[in-house]
Amino acid sequence: MTTIDRQFIPVAKPLIGDAEKRAVMDVLDSGQLAMGSRTEAFEKAFAEYVGAKHAIGVNSGTAALIVALQAHGVGPGDEVITTPFSFIATATSIIACGATPVFVDIDPFDLNLDPNQVEDAITDQTKAVMPVHLYGHPARIDEIQELCEDNGLALVEDAAQAHGAEHAGRRVGTFGTGCFSFYPTKNMTTGEGGIITTNDDEVARLCRIIRSHGQEVRYKHDYFGLNWRMQDMNAAIGLVQMDYIEDWNTARIANAEKLASLIRTVETPRVRDGDRHVFHQFTVRVPRDRDGVQKQLQDAGIGSAVHYPIPIHQQPIIRQMGFGEGSFPVAEAAAGHVLSLPVHPSLGPEDVEYIAAALNRICG
What we know:
Number of helices: 13
CATH class of the largest domain: Alpha Beta
Largest sheet: 7 strands, mixed
Order of helices and strands: HHEHEHEHEHEEEEEHEEHHEEHHHEH
Structural class: alpha/beta
Shape: globular
CATH superfamily of the largest domain: Type I PLP-dependent aspartate aminotransferase-like (Major domain)
């Protein structure tokens, strides 16, 4: 296939407009650059959006995971059950707390943590379970929540890709302690940043302390913490983006539904009944020659990405824990076949049709 004369369609496109630029300049002009009033306002807006009592802004999604785990008392000697099919931060945040990630395989339906395998992985050292709402599709969160309650375990939701995703009409980040990322490619951005959501007053209190060097009273450090604080420039961008997130999610869902209706040659994402998938990624499963398919899409002016080509348990820094080939076969199979296509709100109807037609032609 030869490249045609049309604008290249990127797999992701951050949306930053004049309102965000003005909001940043207002912060610079105010002289209040560190965590302050904009951060507080953004926390309140995001808590209301999710439906949580508290939201605590931090400087990345990874920081959100670490602070949330620490607030639940996760530390050396503890184990946290999680998925091997995610971005590396899901596991390294656990390691950063001195704890051990314990992987269980994923559900082939949606590639999220399989709750049927979680119970068998619980030991006396298990402190928490961390499911990931991968690609914007909620994990089987009510089942995982019940397991956590029955076994006295903390539930930390890695919702980095799932702003506005819902199970049974309830937004993710409210079933346990939610951790969101605002990296530029996410459904909404603050430039860089993250946020923790919770309905637990004590967890919220500890998160606020831990994110600021473990101090509740200035220069008195009762807890171990580092500088995980969100800054007001980032929060100002987030406040503007709160006005658009639902429109953008609606556009993502519409683009995904149209792509799924047009693509005939590969398996498209599935959505479980009762769930709202917000399509941070539209990830298909290519049965053969994924690299070749990706190259031909690139030649046709269509960006794509593999999320994720190497399962966490096979990453060089994790393999030393003793995992071998075949340890988690569903995750390993997914890593060999997944391919994310553009689904972002900047796509026009003609872009969606072109992407589907090109993929059908390549894989047909």
